[in-house]
Design brief:
With 248 residues, this protein is an alpha+beta fold. It is built from three helices and 15 strands. InterPro entries: Cyclophilin-like_dom_sf (IPR029000), Cyclophilin-type_PPIase_dom (IPR002130), Cyclophilin_A-like (IPR044666).
Length: 248
């Protein structure tokens, strides 16, 4: 091979080696870039997942939030404000309704009906129920004593209303404590009823507790009858003197 041709061949080989090295370096750079991108995506996904779990845990820890809306249907019997949105009694709560006919002790279902128990306890602590008459006594298929209206008319309201709770498959057996409401949806307020004998009702009334002591008091009141008979004002005057919530 002539000297000039030899130089050309060597130059060509150097060029090819350079091109090969450059191709290898470029391929390596692309691999590193891809690995870095995948790692970044993995970190981002992990971070997002951690954020979502944190937010979910945070939301779960916060518990239910209650909504108490303006009551535009009933007349405001006594305005003591509104309960806090976060239930203050998330578990089982003991309460006592003291009346001139005797005491009725009850267990409130803060776990099953948190917003109802929250409202009931709030009104009790604000003395909303003090010196109020139980205005309705029924007998027959419906055997309840209804209380909680300072006007004793059945139309009184605390100025707010809230939605039903714990009604799925609800039954109203002897000793049940439930909320009374109007025909309007989500119209719970301050009025409640105590069942002194198994009663037939559709599952439309929030069950928020049960009577643990004092059924004899209710049955004594029921035995006295109502005016008019069957569904009316108790003949034996029933006045709530105080409602106490254990530990509060």
């Amino acid at each position: 091979m002539a000297g000039k041709d030899r130089k050309k061949e060597l130059a060509r080989q150097r060029y090819e080696r350079q091109q090969q090295r450059r191709a290898q370096e470029a391929a390596k750079a692309r691999r590193l870039k891809i690995i870095g991108a995948v790692a970044a995506v993995a970190v981002a996904v992990a971070g997002a997942a951690a954020f979502m779990v944190f937010k979910e845990d945070e939301s779960t820890a916060a518990g239910p939030q209650c909504v108490y809306k303006d009551d535009t249907q009933g007349s405001v019997a006594k305005d003591v404000g509104r309960p806090p949105g976060k239930p203050a009694h998330p578990g089982i709560v003991q309460a006592t309704v003291k009346t001139n006919q005797g005491d009725v002790e009850m267990q409130l279902y803060g776990d099953k009906a948190p917003c109802t128990v929250n409202s009931f306890a709030f009104l009790a602590q604000k003395n909303y129920y003090d010196k109020t008459e139980c205005h309705r006594l029924t007998s027959g298929g419906l055997s309840v004593l209804q209380c909680g209206d300072p006007t004793a008319s059945g139309g009184g309201s605390p100025g707010y209303r809230f939605a039903n709770e714990n009604t799925g498959g609800a039954t109203y057996t002897e000793g049940t404590l439930a909320m009374a409401h109007s025909k309007a949806p989500d119209s719970n307020g301050s009025q409640f009823f105590m069942v002194y004998k198994d009663s037939q009702l559709p599952p439309d009334y929030t069950v928020f507790g049960k009577i643990t002591k004092g059924l004899d008091v209710l049955k004594k009141i029921a035995k006295g009858g109502s005016e008019p008979a069957g569904d009316g004002k108790p003949k034996k005057k029933v006045e709530i003197q105080d409602v106490t919530i254990a530990g509060k």
